[in-house]
Amino acid sequence: MGSPVLLSLSSFVHLDRNSSTPIFVQLTQQIINGIQRGFLIVGSKMPGTRQVSSALDLHRKTVIAAYDELQAQGWIDIVPNKGTFVLQQNQRKPLSLPVQTPISSAQYPAKTGFEVHSSNILDNPFEENTSTYFFSDGTTDIRLTQVKNLSLQYSASMNRKGSLKRMSQYQEDGNIFFKEQLSNFLNLSRGLHISKQNLLITRSSEMSLYLIAKVLLQLNDKVVVAELSNFAVNMTLLQAGAQLDTIPLDSEGICVASLKDKLEKGPIRMLYITPHHHYPTTVTLSAQRRLELLQLANHYGFIIVEDDYDYDFHYEKSAVLPLASADLNGMVIYTGTFGQSLAPAFRTGFVVAPPNLIQEMNKYLSIIDRQGDVIMQQALGEMIDEGEIHRNLKKSLKVYKERRDTMCGILRNILPDEVAVDPPSGGLALWLELPQNKSLFTLKKECQRQDLFIPRHILYQNKQLCAMRLGFGHMDNEEMEKSLYILKSVLQGI
């Protein structure tokens, strides 16, 4: 094995005999990789097939097949009675066969060879959880979901007549049947007066807000949010180029008087609100302020984006209807998530707005998600039509209401002097106010040592506030009790 090329081959060719990729394909790909990386010099003579088969312990026919493939793809030239040579790029023949994805014989580049703009606005704030117990900002319990029933519903939808056609064709307007069913569902449950033309179906609430910002916001447009608000929403708005301004909160929700003061000083493009249960404090915007807000929007011409992220979860006899139900002038964009009581994979986002805005947003949606999941939408539409969504919600609401009451009861029993808690009328989280002298950073750190994970995005602390948004939906009674007793022991020790 004295040939330099043969020595080079044996140094970078590493074949995996257990791989499903044929050996001759692996050899072809790695020789191509060697040529691209300069391990095999252009114009150099390749060793014969017998030499290569002996050096790499391969059958000669395997090497011949690899050489034939390399010649067909234009990487080498086999000259009778002279030998096999590595071709220069301008000598290579047009590819006669599709190029296989190269198997790297060296470490993949650690970073790009070109400049990439990095956005610190969109840095992921979520942390990995390795603890047995954990708090959330208000998520559902997947264990309450009838996953088997959902899977059967999806499978049945796929197998129905016409499913193959729906899967093979792009439907830029989404599944029409689902849009009709969802518009009827929203009209009945939320007092809206819409049709399928008023609906845009998205993959998630995050996608909905991204599209809203993309269509409606320009650089340096002023967007108003509450002083305490959803960090992920703020990230999306900032990335769209908006200038964020804040207004205070109280027991009746956002302070509309403060908003009016800002409007008198200069124009505002958009107001983002969660009036049903404000995120994170869970406060419901009062009826009087809702009316005042609509009047201000009509007078000053700013957009209201109403995010009704947890409308499905209300525990009183009747829920407060969204602002969109009373909007007569097209000033409110209503967005939410359908299927919150289902498994995450079965949920979908939606936007309700006048048709002209829906049409513009659909143009952007067709770029980033042209097909959508038409089969899932069909299954969800059938679940509405058959009443399955209503039955699922009714069952889950009973459980979540009990969990809300249980968590409030435990907190009042074990931490009567440390916390103030007011049971929300709906949603899956409590707003927990803690003593001002407590460090939430220390609380998080010490709880994790005791196997309780507290994500940093549920913690809120400044000079006037020490609080946390404490989800109860994802925990059963045993998990809740253990988690809260860990919180108690740490809180009283710091």
Automatic annotation (TrEMBL):
Pfam family, one: Aminotran_1_2
Boundaries of every HTH gntR-type domain copy: 21-89
Keywords of the record: Aminotransferase, DNA-binding, Pyridoxal phosphate, Transcription, Transcription regulation, Transferase
Keyword Transmembrane helix: no
Keyword Transcription (UniProt): yes
Domain of life: Bacteria
InterPro entries tied to this protein: Aminotransferase_I/II_large, HTH_trans_reg/aminotransferase, PyrdxlP-dep_Trfase, PyrdxlP-dep_Trfase_major, Tscrpt_reg_HTH_GntR, WH-like_DNA-bd_sf, WH_DNA-bd_sf
Family designation: In the C-terminal section; belongs to the class-I pyridoxal-phosphate-dependent aminotransferase family.
Protein name (database record): GntR family transcriptional regulator / MocR family aminotransferase
